[in-house]
Amino acid sequence: MPGEKTAERRQVADVVAERIEQLIVDGVLKSGQSLPSERRLCDKLGISRSALREGLKVLRGRGIIETRQGSGSYVAELTGPRDASPLMHLFSSQPRTLYDLLEVRALLEGESARLAALRGTEADFVLITRRYEEMLAAHAAPEGLDSQQHAHLDHAFHLAVCEASHNPVLVHTLQSLTDLMLSSVFASVNNLYHRPLSLKQLDRQHSRLYHAVIERLPEQAQRAARDHIHSIRDSLKEIEQEEQRLVRATLRLEGWA
Prior knowledge:
This protein is mainly α. It contains 11 helices and 2 strands, in the order αααββαααααααα.
């Protein structure tokens, strides 16, 4: 009967949509990423093209998938326009927010590192290693990259650790803070990376975090992640105090005291 066929088609579409949604939640498909070809998706999911198209139609209706004329389908920006958020603007416009953000990073990244050491798979560790080695290679030739590129490599390493936690809510929470998170990484890059002693310290901290995670040492991984963020906070505060002392001394020298 026509009604039964419609219900069956709707059920298949919902099942396909849920399977693709799971890939997005698990971070296999990421916000803004183009979907694989229909043929590849059908092969991977073991479904027909008609079932796939019905499932994508459901996801488009939910705002999870966008189709762009001439370029295919993409995962939508699920966290919304971060740059347009008044709250994000207020956060990014206030310098003191940097230290608040570092507190949040210490909490979230400490827990994600602990979970990564407990739950990470060999595939996760391959990705973490790849990001770690890319970051180290950039540190070895700092004149070759600008601060923004260094910051993205640093952030990519920490995000790879977080993804190995296999806690989708934790991963998406950190991803929703990407713009603010990168502002704290930019601060450390701009203020610490050009200082040889600070760069060596950062490399040691990243090394402790990396080895604790891939050697499956959860408590050490959590402590390494938190110590790393706390060290960045303390170093930036010291730089800030140095600048304030310099300003005061200059004013006294020029007779403004």
